Amino acid sequence: MKKAVVLGAGISGLASAALLAQAGYQVTVLERNTWIGGKSRRVEVSGQRMDTGPALVTFPEVWQQFLATYDALGATKSAPIKNASVAKVEFTKLNEVGRYFFREHETDLPVKENHEWFAAWTRFQKQHDEITSSISTLLTAHPFDPKALPALGKMLKVYGARLTTQSYIKSLKWMPAGLREVIAIHTLNAGVSPKQTLAIYASMTAAMATQGISVPVGGVNEIPQTIAKLAEAAGAKIRLGERVIGVKKGLVTTQDGEYPADLVVSSLDPEVLRVLLGKKPKQPTGKRSCSGVAIYAVLKQPLPAGTVTHSVVMPDEPAELYAALEAAVPPKQTMAFVNYYKAGEVYPNEKPTVAVLLTAPADGKTYDLNSPWVRTEVERISKVMGLDVAIDSLFEDHIILTPEYFGEWGSALGALYGKTNPLWQSGPFHNPQYRSISKPWLRRVGASVHPGGGIPAVLGGTLISLRDLKPGSN
């Protein structure tokens, strides 16, 4: 039986372990931390459960394809293991993608019929309905897979030669300027400005509105928890609290021992893996994606009636925010996600909770609620959302994660999505690739390929990286 060692117990590492074990590999997962999920981590504040990392799930067909692949790989076993018999994630669909606040505008997405942007939004969404399935295809198919070509063709009919989000959005002269900014700012989900991202990011809002967005009952960490159960049911071993100190062909070394490996799958940050492979550490250079100041709090009382689950408070001048992030300095105003859960909503909590997620420069620094720009933004966000007091005055208790914390994962100075690559490397020619020609024994998934990216991209990338697995092949 061939042996596989998976580096990291985040979503992509666990998904890799589950598929490899089903395919007949003897699998060991090595994780330096004492929890599973990686950045998608479950924390407890004043006895209330909260999850860090992604707050919602999009493109559900990618999750279904992962489960179908798991079942198919185990079909030839003498006692086949089906995902439904091991664990199941229950999803609840939210009423809206989010509520957006921009200058004097306030709108839900999808835009409601009584809003001044409704006609323009309807036109935009209709144009993109045809390519929603194409996005799902590209998330799970290798760029050179023949079935990816029709999907690419459909998208090019929409974008034409306008390859960046900025150039495409600017071409929509019929769309109100405010709505263009709302759509364009979603490129910060990749950590960079609209001029540095492919036009596909303009389609994400329409796709999410068409399909809806979901949250696992119990929180997003239910996804890695479930995948871990699938991996272990197939025979994988997950070792927590064991730091990898070296990787080479045929062997992975930790502080506790050595693990022979016919195949190594890394979900670690590219720079972390580079050092483990024996290269010297590099000093942070070049442009980086954004970081974050993430505040997770338990509330003394509920927020006002009508507060939605996901609010997005935008800066008055998005261009200034993009420029500040590119220069790695605090912006005058930032973009913030405010994720609010009532007691018993999604999480099995007795008290309401909120996450205030501020887009921050990747500067490696630590911040608290009294840091000048954080203080200013918390008060601005509270006012924009119609609160009578600063939202932190309603906190019973909280924790805060900063660029210094995110830098511990390996991305330079806490850049959530790693360094900023040239535009042509942000699509199918991203660097590094899922596989290495010089190291056929090494596969890359998750953060090792593209830090961040969201759950569908992480799971889809795992399917692409391990696309040559055959049922019962080992």
What this model shows, in words?
The chain has 474 residues and is of the alpha/beta class. The protein has helices spanning 11-22, 60-73, 83-86, 118-129, 132-140, 148-159, 165-171, 177-184, 200-211, 222-233, 270-276, 318-327, 372-384, 403-407, 454-465, and strands spanning 3-7, 26-31, 42-45, 48-51, 91-93, 98-102, 105-109, 214-216, 237-240, 244-248, 251-254, 258-260, 263-266, 291-299, 310-313, 336-341, 353-360, 395-401, 442-444. The chain is built from 15 helices and 19 strands. It is globular and about 65 Å long.
Strand content is 15-25%
Helicity, as a percent range: 25-40%
Largest sheet: 7 strands, mixed
Large-scale geometry: globular
Strands of the biggest beta sheet: in what spatial order? 7-6-15-16-17-14-18
Sheet/helix structural class: alpha/beta
Low-confidence stretches: none
Mean of pLDDT: 92
Counted beta strands: 19
Radius of gyration: 22 Å
Number of helices: 15
Report the span from N to C terminus: 6 Å
